[in-house]
Amino acid sequence: GMVAAKYDVLDLKYGDGSPAVLRHVDGSGFAYYQSGRKAICISAHGTNATGKVRRYGAIVHSDSARSPIIGCFDEWGRGYADGQLGPGDLQAPKVVVGEANVTVVDGTGRSTDVPLGVHGNRRVGAETAQQGSAGSADITLRLNAVLTLQHRLGRTSLDFQCGGISHSFVLGELQGEEVQGMPAPAAVSLAEDTMRQIGEATQTLRDVRSKVSTLKVDPTQKDTRRHGLGGSTTFKVSNNLQDVLDSLNALTQSLAQPGLAPADLKWNTQGKLKKLLAASHPQCPGQERNWNISRVSGKCTEERLMNTKPTVATPKTVSPISQLKLPELVDEMAGTGALLVVICLATYALEQSNYAKLLAERVHTELMQRLGPSGREGVRFVAIELTEMCGFAQRYGVKEVPYCLMFQGGVVVYSKRLRGMRLLPKDAGTSQPHVLLVEPSPAQQLKLERAIRRSGCSWDLSMDGSQALRLASRSLPYDAVLLSGALPTTQQRSVASAVKRVEPGAMVMVFDACSPPPEEDPAIRGRFLEECNHVFPYSPSYTALMAVLSRCETDDKRRPAGAGLDKRELLDE
């Protein structure tokens, strides 16, 4: 039978008519600040046989320029949220919901681990909710003036209150519970007999479609006479049979979900798409003047992901400690004969320090597997920050970062520098160039991206000169830059200089050189084209682009000198 929509569309608006909360029939949707920026993006995952959504994830944005991400939760309710700075806070408070516990970081940087509780984001009964659960965490974190995070009895929720609008978003798995605040679907005005007849007609159409689809069709013939004796039967039918099957499929979908737009909308302009969506969804037409595809598409780019953080906290087997606490820890473990491994890190060498922490985590895991439960008390890993005090480095002869010290019996038994980080390439191999594509035309973007993808190269797309300058200023070098001839010469020269500033050997290429802007000075443009490594008169094909990119030098310039220490070498030592 058919599964009808479980809820109706929720459309809450502010007093001026601007959207506040908009949720679709499955519970996914958005919450907006009064400024028009997105506050919460809710995504739905999985449905059961009755149409109820099983799990919800969320991304939380701040009400500031470029809408930075301040919280991220997956469909199981695991993730993090950054709170609002309070009086006397040195840093923003934070809550991290993990697999088995909740980590709370206060404004002074002190972290506390609280058990998640016996329910673990599962449904709790009324009796348990009144009496509480032993070991569960009841946490309230103010994210900003509008959003509040609540964590109670293993269930995480986001409370949205702005401009007289109040709504609560429950995250994680619902276990069959109803979504809070969602309206019930409008009652069907058809009579019971009519609905029964529609159901019988739908079942008949499905039976006909299943039988017709098993026939072998010869589209080259136009009569319907039967040919052949024995074995399989071939019917010579019209070419319109596939159209009939598609029409039956579309009719079945329209009867099952009468309020949803079909997936095969035919459009070629923004205005046409806007009219089709408004006709299919009269309850939320979206007739704003500044409506455009780029605003509602939510394209996820690497530039947007720069502010994101991992949804799961890293393991804390290598816990950071203060330099002042290290002598006490050495004396404490001297009497037991245990081995104390100290990893020395520094904030001025962030990439090397991050690799050293990852290396120590892996070594600790494999060491615990070798020793077993009986030998786990014989070794302990800790990390210290060298910038905390200057006397520690002189005392133990630490001159480079990262550094490893081992104490046993109160004395240093091992002192050696970790030979830096092993920098993994962005793609499978470092031999493929990393390209910066600067092209404002969407049609040309699609063509050139397809050619670069076929060549196996990695690339970043920029639609104007200012965005290209931001991408070129990052630490990851570009082996080549592909500039559109439609850009002004000043922007082309600025982007090329920024790329070469990070990677002097980068290749500069210009395409569509035969179509310069009309206001350009031919002499200035000619001098810039002479400085480029290659100039394409028109948009390059895949073969031409591959021939030029094959000359890029990409040997090992992303790998720092001295890299090569792995967990096996440290574990053996």
- Average of per-residue pLDDT values: 76
Separate helix tally: 14
- Give the fraction of residues assigned to helices: 25-40%
Note the gap between the termini: 66 Å
Total number of strands: 28
- Residue fraction in strands: 15-25%
3D structure, described in words:
Helix content is 27%, strand content 24%. Helix 2 (192-213) packs antiparallel against helix 3, helix 9 (442-455) packs across helix 13 and helix 10 runs parallel beside helix 11 (489-502). Helix 7 links the parallel strand 20 (339-345) and strand 21. The protein has 14 helices and 28 strands. Residues 118-135, 222-239, 422-430 and 555-565 have low confidence and may be disordered. Strands 1, 2, 3, 4, 5, 6, 7, 8, 9, 10 and 15 form an eleven-stranded antiparallel β-sheet that branches. It has 573 residues and is an alpha+beta fold. The radius of gyration is 31 Å and the shape is globular.
Q: Key terms for this structure?
A:
5-stranded mixed β-sheet; 573 residues; 11-stranded antiparallel β-sheet; globular
List the helices and strands and how they pair.
Blueprint: E1 10-13, E2 19-23, E3 29-32, E4 38-47, E5 53-61, E6 69-73, E7 79-82, E8 94-97, E9 101-105, E10 111-115, H1 126-131, E11 139-142, E12 147-152, E13 155-162, E14 165-170, E15 172-173, H2 192-213, E16 216-217, E17 226-227, E18 234-235, H3 241-256, H4 270-280, H5 293-297, E19 319-320, H6 326-334, E20 339-345, H7 350-371, E21 379-385, H8 391-396, E22 403-408, E23 411-417, E24 434-438, H9 442-455, E25 458-462, H10 465-472, E26 480-484, H11 489-502, E27 507-511, H12 522-531, E28 534-535, H13 542-549, H14 567-572
Parallel strand pairs: 16-18, 19-21, 20-21, 24-25, 24-26, 26-27, 27-28
Antiparallel strand pairs: 1-2, 2-3, 3-4, 4-5, 5-6, 5-15, 6-7, 7-8, 8-9, 9-10, 11-12, 12-13, 13-14, 17-18, 20-22, 22-23
Helix pairs in contact: 2-3, 9-13, 10-11
